[in-house]
């Protein structure tokens, strides 16, 4: 996808008003303006990061989209690297690209996962997201465990999840389709499940209502139909789409960057590259919310620290016996709890401390550089 810079970017103003139709369309509100006030006082300009690519990012500002370097705000902690959806403070100094991102506003929400690498590291997939749309293709067999994993990360992020069952046109029998929807509803308490076809338009209006306010991120494995859906929601072909491989039906990882778009009916949409793995990242609360019916049952166990194995008065095993709680569901819950505990134990405190120290030092250097620049400007 090409992402042309606005021709007006050369008239980038050093004293912008803190509200504009561009910023508003990207989700700017009184809270962001308040958080930005100290940066505005330093002469910095607000903008929303619409795309990040190798140390540079595109930022939508009141005066158009500008390219900015992220060197000043790239700490070792990958959780704090500039991400699509962040609100950035851009230095308007200098007429030529790239400009510099000097700071990012604290995120309201962030969708994080651990990378599949052995050295467990967190990675932010999207920042300041209100709705997480987990896109699951009906062209392949449903993987309930994977949906639960996505749901745990979505709840943990602070966003409201929705599951889209894409390519519904490929399921010709309406009875089969409604069973598939029920299966997913059964593992997603508190979550809307929308069967949808970008090909026929079925369900697209239902989703349009969900995404018409706030920021939505599309998540899912490669080939799930995220970019096709993004094009349907935006109303034009903003993203490239590619057929899955014939051999195994797997996607081709067509999308490689996270891209943010303003939707015609209001709201903001972020399309993301297909994920190979979705490791949990410190998602204890998210796992609890994903399996809320199990946690509710557990509250009724006789012993507070019941392990739901063989204790008397266990409400969870009683539900298993009664057939109201599927064994698969409980096993999936246990698996994610264990995975999360392992991950938290691995990220040792010393490493976290080092990251924090380094971040502080960088911050101090950045502030010193800014002060120096400001003084230089005054002279
Ligand atoms: N039949 C049918 N095919 C669809 C639908 N939506 C998407 N597809 C097809 O699915 C394939 C993959 O679609 P993409 O939108 O590129 O998938 P993606 O999730 O963006 O994939 P990555 O960018 O690799 O993560 C393409 O061949 C699409 O035409 C649909 O509603 N019905
Ligand atoms: Mg894509
Ligand atoms: Zn129990």
Automatic annotation (TrEMBL):
<comment type="function">
    <text>One of several proteins that assist in the late maturation steps of the functional core of the 30S ribosomal subunit. Helps release RbfA from mature subunits. May play a role in the assembly of ribosomal proteins into the subunit. Circularly permuted GTPase that catalyzes slow GTP hydrolysis, GTPase activity is stimulated by the 30S ribosomal subunit.</text>
</comment>
<dbReference type="Pfam" id="PF03193">
    <property type="entry name" value="RsgA_GTPase"/>
</dbReference>
<feature type="binding site">
    <location>
        <begin position="220"/>
        <end position="228"/>
    </location>
    <ligand>
        <name>GTP</name>
    </ligand>
</feature>
<dbReference type="InterPro" id="IPR027417">
    <property type="entry name" value="P-loop_NTPase"/>
</dbReference>
<keyword id="KW-0862">Zinc</keyword>
<keyword id="KW-0963">Cytoplasm</keyword>
<dbReference type="InterPro" id="IPR010914">
    <property type="entry name" value="RsgA_GTPase_dom"/>
</dbReference>
<feature type="binding site">
    <location>
        <position position="306"/>
    </location>
    <ligand>
        <name>Zn(2+)</name>
    </ligand>
</feature>
<keyword id="KW-0694">RNA-binding</keyword>
<keyword id="KW-0479">Metal-binding</keyword>
<protein>
    <recommendedName>
        <fullName>Small ribosomal subunit biogenesis GTPase RsgA</fullName>
        <ecNumber>3.6.1.-</ecNumber>
    </recommendedName>
</protein>
<keyword id="KW-0690">Ribosome biogenesis</keyword>
<keyword id="KW-0699">rRNA-binding</keyword>
<feature type="binding site">
    <location>
        <position position="314"/>
    </location>
    <ligand>
        <name>Zn(2+)</name>
    </ligand>
</feature>
<comment type="subunit">
    <text>Monomer. Associates with 30S ribosomal subunit, binds 16S rRNA.</text>
</comment>
<dbReference type="InterPro" id="IPR004881">
    <property type="entry name" value="Ribosome_biogen_GTPase_RsgA"/>
</dbReference>
<keyword id="KW-0547">Nucleotide-binding</keyword>
<comment type="similarity">
    <text>Belongs to the TRAFAC class YlqF/YawG GTPase family. RsgA subfamily.</text>
</comment>
<dbReference type="InterPro" id="IPR030378">
    <property type="entry name" value="G_CP_dom"/>
</dbReference>
<feature type="domain" description="CP-type G">
    <location>
        <begin position="119"/>
        <end position="278"/>
    </location>
</feature>
<feature type="binding site">
    <location>
        <position position="308"/>
    </location>
    <ligand>
        <name>Zn(2+)</name>
    </ligand>
</feature>
<keyword id="KW-0378">Hydrolase</keyword>
<feature type="binding site">
    <location>
        <position position="301"/>
    </location>
    <ligand>
        <name>Zn(2+)</name>
    </ligand>
</feature>
<keyword id="KW-0342">GTP-binding</keyword>
<feature type="binding site">
    <location>
        <begin position="166"/>
        <end position="169"/>
    </location>
    <ligand>
        <name>GTP</name>
    </ligand>
</feature>
<feature type="domain" description="EngC GTPase">
    <location>
        <begin position="127"/>
        <end position="276"/>
    </location>
</feature>
């Amino acid at each position: 996808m090409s992402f042309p810079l606005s021709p007006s970017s050369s008239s980038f103003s050093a004293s912008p008003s803190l509200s504009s139709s561009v910023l508003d369309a990207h989700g700017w509100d009184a809270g962001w303006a308040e958080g930005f006030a100290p940066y505005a006082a330093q002469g910095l300009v607000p903008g929303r990061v619409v795309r990040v690519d190798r140390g540079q990012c595109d930022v939508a500002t009141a005066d158009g989209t500008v390219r900015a370097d992220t060197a000043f705000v790239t700490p070792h902690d990958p959780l704090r690297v500039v991400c699509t959806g962040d609100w950035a403070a851009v230095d308007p100094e200098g007429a030529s690209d790239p400009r510099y991102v000097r700071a990012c506003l604290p995120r309201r929400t962030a969708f994080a996962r651990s990378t599949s690498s052995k050295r467990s590291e967190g990675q932010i997939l999207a920042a300041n997201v209100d709705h997480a749309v987990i896109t699951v293709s009906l062209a392949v067999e449903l993987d309930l465990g994977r949906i639960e994993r996505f749901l745990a990360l979505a709840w943990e992020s602070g966003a409201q999840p929705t599951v889209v069952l894409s390519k519904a046109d490929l399921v010709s029998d309406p009875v089969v389709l409604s069973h598939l929807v029920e299966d997913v509803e059964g593992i997603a308490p508190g979550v809307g499940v929308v069967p949808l076809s970008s090909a026929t338009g079925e369900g697209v209006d239902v989703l349009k209502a969900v995404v018409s306010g706030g920021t939505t991120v599309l998540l899912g494995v490669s080939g799930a139909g995220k970019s096709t859906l993004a094009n349907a929601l935006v109303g034009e072909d903003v993203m490239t789409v590619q057929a899955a491989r014939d051999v195994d039906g797997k996607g081709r990882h067509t999308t490689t960057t996270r891209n943010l778009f303003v939707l015609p009916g209001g709201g903001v949409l972020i399309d993301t590259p297909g994920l190979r793995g979705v490791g949990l990242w410190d998602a204890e609360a998210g796992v609890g919310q994903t399996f809320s019916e199990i946690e509710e049952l557990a509250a009724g166990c006789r012993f507070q620290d019941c392990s739901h194995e063989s204790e008397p008065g266990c409400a969870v095993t009683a539900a298993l016996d009664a057939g109201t709680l599927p064994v698969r569901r409980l096993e999936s819950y246990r698996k994610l709890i264990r995975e999360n505990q392992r991950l938290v134990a691995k990220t040792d405190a010393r490493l976290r401390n080092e990251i924090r120290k380094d971040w502080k030092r960088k911050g101090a250097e950045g502030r010193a550089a800014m002060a120096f620049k400001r003084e230089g400007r005054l002279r």
